[in-house]
Amino acid sequence: MSWPLFLARRLAALVAVLLVTSFLVYGLLYLVPGGPMAFLLGNRSGSPEQIAAIRHEYRLDDPFLIRYFGWLGDALRGDFGQSLVYRQGVSDLMSTRLATTGLLVLYATVIIVVAGVGLGVLGALRRGTVDAVISLVNSIFLATPTFVVGVLLVIVFALGLGWFPVFGPGTGLPDRLYHLTLPAIALSLGSAAFLARITRASVGEELRREHVETARSRGFSQSHIVRRHVLRNASIPVVTVTGLTVAGLIAGSVVVENIFALDGLGSLLVRAILQRDFAVVQGVVLVLVTAFVLINLAVDVCYSLIDPRLSPGEAT
């Protein structure tokens, strides 16, 4: 499959996924008990004239499809409507929090890739005690929920030792990285352990391949064999798991942001759900789904960059 055709198909799939998602998000929120009218009226019953005025003000008296396509058209222009709670544009609310969530996910991704791939390769090359210790640590991290890890990190390294701040995203890039260190570690430990297991299995399988045995018989050093014959061939499943893991971090950031009082998209989404702030929920969910699909597109592109023998889309 050629690159233009591959990209065209992936972009078409992206548009289809976003259309279906936007329709479901927009429609399902109006099926909750009371809908937006329950929030707008509060504890008041409201006269028929008041209800009619509110429905007209928020265009709730328009047919559903007209409201949906109107909202979708505005969303394509970057306008997700007004927050019912904050009385502020949803786009403005998200833009101020997007940097925090984005930097947190990026920081956690770096930790996952470095720790997961490094420990996985080390476990595959150093069978015995080293491999057993790494496997034990991986099992512990995989079995420990993210919120438990976050609370323990706060108790030990923030409150106990005082090495890191307890909450807040910080200001400026160095201070932000300092504030986001514990949240990124809490968000990444389980995923790093899972990636380490996948990397160990993939590298171990490649080490048993015939071409690796041939390279050993020709006298090549172990480091040369690992660099030239093992890592690239073992990277396809590693890239796949990394892409899925990074996409999952976007959802996992909700828990971490609440533990460390980070004002990101995740905490904004939780508050919006509890407060029935429909416009904010719709906007945040659509942005998160878009990020998820784009990450999977990037993974597909990486396949062909890692191994040119694979045509675009073949590895999936």
User: Measured on Cα atoms, how large is the radius of gyration?
Assistant: 24 Å
- Oligomeric state of this protein: single chain
Q: In terms of per-residue confidence, which ranges show pLDDT below 50 for 5 or more consecutive residues?
A: none
- Could you give the distance between the termini? 13 Å
Largest sheet: none
Going by helix content, strand content and strand pairing, the class is: mainly alpha
Helical percentage: over 70%
Task: Figure out the total of helices.
Answer: 13
> CATH class of the largest domain, anyone?
Mainly Alpha
CATH superfamily of the largest domain: MetI-like
What percentage of amino acids are in beta strands? under 5%
> So, CATH architecture of the largest domain?
Orthogonal Bundle
Number of strands: 0
Based on Cα principal axes, name the global outline. Answer: globular
On the 0 to 100 scale, the average pLDDT is 77
Number of domains: 2
Q: CATH topology of the largest domain, anyone?
A: MetI-like fold
Order of helices and strands: HHHHHHHHHHHHH
Protein name: ABC transporter permease
Subcellular location: Cell membrane
Family: Belongs to the binding-protein-dependent transport system permease family.
Domain ABC transmembrane type-1: 98-299
